[in-house]
Amino acid sequence: MATQGDSLNGGQILANSLVRQGVNTAFGVPGESFLPLLNGLVDHPQFRFITCRQEGGAAYMAEAYAKLTGKPGVVMVTRGPGASNAMIGMHTAYQDSTPMVLLVGQVGTDMVEREAFQEIDYRRMFSECAKWVGSVDRVDRIDEFVSHAFHVAQAGRKGPVVLALPEDVLYMSGQENPVPPAHIVQPGLDRVEFSRALKEFSQAKNPLIIAGGGNWTPHACQALQVWANRESIPVATSFRSQDVIDNLDPCFAGDLGIGANPALLQRVKNADYLLVVGERLGEMTTAGYTILSAPQAHTKLIHVHSGAEELGRVYRPEYALNCSPENFCLALDEIKMGQQYDRQAMAQAHSEYLAFSAPVTVPGDLQLAHIMKELSETIPRNSIVTNGAGNFATWVHRFYPYGPYKTQLAPANGSMGYGLPAAIAAKIQYSEKVVIAVCGDGDFMMNCQELATAARYGSFPIILLVNNNMLGTIRMHQEREFKSRVIATELTNPDFVKFADSFGMPGYRVSKTGDFTAAFAKALASKHGALIELVLDQEVISPSKLLSQLGK
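Predicted structure:
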């Protein structure tokens, strides 16, 4: 490894700078556009470069890694096609408020604006799904740009940033300008406004808390959970943020997502004061902006968010607190509510959640709800459950009770193909934990090639693959909107058991509920994970409706 004062090339300087930022793991697909960076990483034998099979899968893995560790996920991809593939992970990170740093190879500075081989203007390309896009055009500013990238990714509402790496700059020689690790800059609490807001909230007759979004920490989750129980206030979580509150905790009222509990939706509508912490109040959480009227909600609202730009964006709250969930929740201990509200409401809300999450029976031999219930009774509470997008996810969100933070990995942007890469990243980071990827057949095939990554690093999750040979969500919408006029949603699948076996992973096909127990026991005992194909009749489109009942 080079010593201070030595002349290094840009790739070596960049590698050293990343290590100084605390980066020891990166996901990516190698490309010739950033060979000097890869060469620089050779000098850091403790650094793990996880070689993925497609940049989209790599970006998903980095996003999941960031959620699990709280550290920025780092992705390295080549220019043009590589950057384009990685875009999906960037969009996921942006909507999930996940800190990420995407390092993208770029054509040399002497070729810019010529439409050189694989050239793309990254500032325009990523403008809608990155907090900042920079290009390191001088070797003497590499450390500065890396420091800026890691500060921006972790400041305020966290999110992804992009650094373009012109190829000639990576080969240039220069001196290092070492910079210590970035500060994590989160907005603090305005104590005066906090006191005013919580004093008014304490006068509510029917209060409710909605928690979710990004920027949470275990301390924040625990503080909110303790305070809500002490004050007997029910807590609902936002779309795909169910693990902010342990779902078996008495204060948990359920989640506001797709197919939410009607009783919970009514509870939101009936609340006279909402305390919203960390959640943007987006389309999915508000049922298409219907359970809360915009721009002035029907109920009084305290909105707490790390990003000042999100406060008042859709809903004009009574109190807008630009504050991180942790700084806000840790201050709650000093607030004592009055006795004017119904203290049985929390117990009732939790009972409504338990009733809604009790397994239902649908026609057919395979009962997904009962399988999710069995899953929760079999694996440890700290197990990590991932999923991508599709109707199959309705069953896991409704019938599986998530444990403590961070036991859920799911894309708030509804991105297909997320579940498998996220589970592999989780297993790489936490090999001792049970990691379950719940996938649909269409969802799984989006990134099934990443089983090769799992095999390479010996990090096999257990995959529950719900197979109905169609794109279920789109088919559901087709039948509802244009009854029996179906096109483009039927799928042709491989033999999934043989597919898993080709990567050294045992596979099992289950078409009856009673056969799941034995297959799952074998999966838990396996050192190579397992793929369990759950064969589902196409009629079973959701826990509450059959396909043939739609559009009537």
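Summary: The longest strand covers residues 100-106.
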